[in-house]
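Note to self: keep these together.
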Amino acid sequence: MNRRFILFIKEKCCFCIKAEKLLQEKELSFKKVLFEEEQENVLKEIKDAMDYKTVPMIFERDEAGVRFIGGYSDLKIYLNNG
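Structure:
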């Protein structure tokens, strides 16, 4: 299976850093989308569209499509159950 994760993050977010480290430890492929302060309005639109309030926002892309995982805690559960 060709899994790749996409992380919408902010630079100094501790949970964003933890999510990156977890994916690295599990040797899973991922791409980061870093939002700076001047891009806050774009991030807000994405949060509103997904009805999610915090970062990181983590997605998985594979042959079946793209699915929203959630945040760091959701990723931990997802990876331990999958």
